[in-house]
Design goal:
The chain is of the alpha+beta class. The protein has 3 domains: 5-86, PH-domain like, CATH 2.30.29; 89-219, Nucleoside diphosphate kinase-like domain (Alpha-Beta Plaits, 2-Layer Sandwich), CATH 3.30.70; 237-372, Alpha-Beta Plaits. Helices cover 34% and strands 26% of the residues. The N and C termini lie far apart (48 Å). It binds cytidine-5'-diphosphate (CDP) and magnesium ion (MG). Major role in the synthesis of nucleoside triphosphates other than ATP.
Amino acid sequence: MEDRYAFLTEWYDPTAALLRRYQLFYYPQDGSVEMFDVKNRRMFLRRTKYDDIHQEDLFVGNRVNVFSRQLNLIDYGDQYTANKLGSKKERTLALVKPDAVTRIGDIFELIYSSHLIVTKAKMTKLTWSQAADFYAEHQSKPFFNNLVQFVSSGPAVAMELMGDEATSIWRKLLGPADSAVARKEAPQSVRAQFGTDAVKNVCHGSESLAAAARELEFFFPSTIGHGPSNTAVYTDCTCCIIKPHAISEGLTGKILNSISAAGFEISALEMFNVDRANAEEFYEVYKGVVTEYPSMVTELCSGPCLVLEIHGTDVPKSFREFCGPSDPEIARHLRSNTLRALYGKDKVRNAVHCTDLPEDGGLEVQYFFKILDG
Ligand code: CDP
Ligand code: MG
């Protein structure tokens, strides 16, 4: 019999303001899809070839685009699919150490190129004792003090990565612990490319599934309010949101690289899953003013977004200019080097939000980093 994978999916229908459920079927043999409306019990999309969907994107927790609809994959539709596509999925911890936070864009690119996805991310500055806790297994090693000092010396970015055999894939991508050894033995690895020596070696990766579980709990605890805090400063700042569509299109690394290359300082960073009520509240000022308001809300809560605090003198103005006109088509004509010209699709899916008024920079940053950050 022909291979067929089945999923239960959810799609938010903005016109009806309803969550609709579909069964999604994928036929790997010819890359075709089929959708069935669960509630109305009828065929919604006849089997059609669709090139933009790939087998490696099909797992519970991920989102896929099918003819401009963002479908959340909420469950496997049958045991066959769960066994075949779900059994190797793992979550693991990646920690970008203080020596490499300015390379965060490149690191995102490498993660995506290995078919892993980033499901959580937070910039934090560990205290000495937090870093010592995190590295407790190395307490008796001669390099312990040095290591703890280094890891707590500046901001770091903790991330949860997900994918097939995420733990070993990420460890392999990192390469040997000593950057010099990495350059000899694994020249393509993260540590070979961006590392300095045996201490300053770019990133950490969990060594086993058990370590991953413990380390993820350390940075992203199941009890809210207990993890290491974010690094937002709330002054001389502006708020940038890398929108969900840009994240699902794999543009995060490129956008972060463009921001750094333009000389902007990212002083805080965190991934959020914004719910509808919060998206409406955050965009409140645009309600009744901008015709796209309802679609902007839908876009912001359609998947994870990455929120940045950009820090510097007069940064609300200069960063806004760098984002460019809100309509990417116009941006491409007038200011082709801006973020929206480079990465936007249309007025709603325009890659990034940025604060409009200089006096709102701190307030928008607070909305995410004080109110929504559990
Ligand atoms: O990080 P990884 O698991 O690959 O290596 P490890 O052997 O578990 O060591 C943990 C960390 O300690 C390394 O990533 C280095 O940052 C640091 N280290 C060090 O500072 N000096 C050494 N001689 C060895 C490791
Ligand atoms: Mg280790």
